[in-house]
Write the structure tokens for this entry.
Amino acid sequence: MTSDQSTANPQPWYAGVTRYQWLILIIASAGWIFDVYEGQIFNITSHQLLQSVLGTNDPHAISFWNDVFLGVFLLGGATGGLLFGMMADYWGRKPTMVATILMYSIFSGLTFFAHSLWHIGVLRFLVAMGTGGEWAVAASLVAEVFPAHARTHASGIFHATSVSGTWIATATGLIVASQWRYAYLFGILPALLVAWVMASVKEPPRWQKAAEEAPAQAGSLRELLGDPRWRKRALLGMLLAAIGLGNYWAVHVAGQSLAVNMLVKNGVKLSVALEKGKWAYGFVETVGGLAGLLCFGPLCARIGRKPAFFWSYLAAFLIVPVTCYLPQTFRQLLFIFPIFGFLTLGMHAGYAIYFPELFPTRLRATGTGFCFNVGRVAAASMLVFSGWLKNQLELHLAITLLGCFFLLGLVVVHYLPETKGQPLPE
């Protein structure tokens, strides 16, 4: 039993969950898995991609453009999250999910034909629009379909499946090696999900009722930011996400750079170090990340949303310098990577749990998309700063300093409401 359940109901959280509700979780998770694949495949293949497009192996140029394109991706996610979040509240969850999956699939496949920096930039922006929108719709759909006693765990599991996207991207990157174009061509496969979504998904009764009662207010960005209740939650939620997302790309993903850096210093050839770095980050570190994501839902149910975020951000801050400076060999680094992944990734499951609980049905996808994806705008600016800092300072010191941003999360969460045990706003 969790603290989100009544003490009179000692049954496990999944008791009473219907086949249709499990189906929604599977479909939403499948879309999210490939959503993450589209983001991670660039991280996994960026060195070979940029080396090919730039025509140089200059590490500073590659590092700079890597962070620029990650910033472009976050900006695209913010744009898509806002646009498709509003569409999902106004037009419905089902058609919007279809549109987002098609968008990120098609433009990922077109990356196969990219031959210049502006091609990459435009396509990454458009892919990100689809991925940003898909998350907001899927997170809202899971929250609305599952019963209250199972919502926290289901939403946590939904977000945790993102790790499968990282694993698929890592495996694909290792298989294609320097032939990076085929990794993006593979990204068109999620378009096949559309038929499943169209055949299986029904609009939640909550959304149907809200659309009938106040159709003009559904998906209204003006109401979201004009009403003091929702504006405060949207802005603080956006800051909470920005801190986690910025540090995800600047710190968590930098585990791959730490691995490559250590291997090269130990005399390993760069081409070999790059492949081992993919494996160390994509599998070893991400195993810990999966455990952290899966644990965050039960933690939220047990102690509440705010305490779970508080202790997670604090632990993430503490583990960064330990990971940067304690390991002296590659084997030692591999030993600490799962802990690093657990503590720097786990709080991300909280976004799928918490953000849909902050807003009424008519604004749920809009507010959820605003928090998660506008947070990417601030995270994008941090990526530009991260790229600059890593070129100015020694890598380990730069990552340690970037990890200090986790402390801002302790301040932000203080001003947000606790939603544990409360029904979804209507």
Summary: Residues 75 and 289 are 24 Å apart (CA to CA).
